């Protein structure tokens, strides 16, 4: 109620203080592009804006869906990647010695970095699968795995309608949505959904 009685200038000061106190995503010197879950996003790039919005919203979604990554899953993923690399090396005609060198013991830092990459891949695959099962729609082929484009589009539209994120810089709005609205950017799996369901049914790091 108190805010309603603030003067015009008082409202501006109050808003400025609130903006300054809010958690910041992006570069402090960049213009305000939007807000997601109470965090201010500063950027002049539409793709970076989309990245931050998706990161925050899917992070919360993963928590709501109980999505976690276990050490066993990370180990299974690493075995899968190592086996693929050896097969790929053999196809390229590399010698046994070269293959052994490629699989040489890693430092603790290298091992930690690879485990982080594995955990991020597994988590993202689980998020994609959960979104696909909830929203359905078309799935696009990506090198990092199948991506439920229509599901993401609907997920974001609903979040925006609920006020969970706001695009303050309207000059970035078209670029923000283009990834989901421009079909020319993607190659889609067959529309019957059979292949997409199969891809999300079994973790790729566990084999067929």
Give an overview of the whole structure.
- The protein has helices at 8-21, 46-64, 71-91, 96-102, 108-135, 149-161, 173-181, 194-201, and strands at 24-26, 32-36, 39-42, 165-167.
- It is an alpha+beta fold.
- The N and C termini lie far apart (60 Å).
- Strands 1-3-2-4 form a four-stranded mixed beta sheet.
- Helix 2 (46-64) packs across helix 7, helix 3 crosses helix 5 and helix 5 packs across helix 6 (149-161).
- The chain contains eight helices and four strands, in the order αβββαααααβαα.
Query: What's the overall average pLDDT, rounded?
Result: 85
Report the sheet with the most strands, covering strand number, pairing sense and barrel closure: 4 strands, mixed
Number of helices: 8
* Poorly predicted residue ranges: 1-21
Beta-strand portion reads 5-15%
Number of strands: 4
- What overall geometry do the principal axes of the alpha carbons give? globular
Helix content: 55-70%
Lateral strand order in the biggest sheet: 1-3-2-4
How far the N terminus sits from the C terminus, by CA atoms, comes to 60 Å
Secondary structure class reads alpha+beta
Order of helices and strands: HEEEHHHHHEHH
In angstroms, what is the radius of gyration? Answer: 22 Å
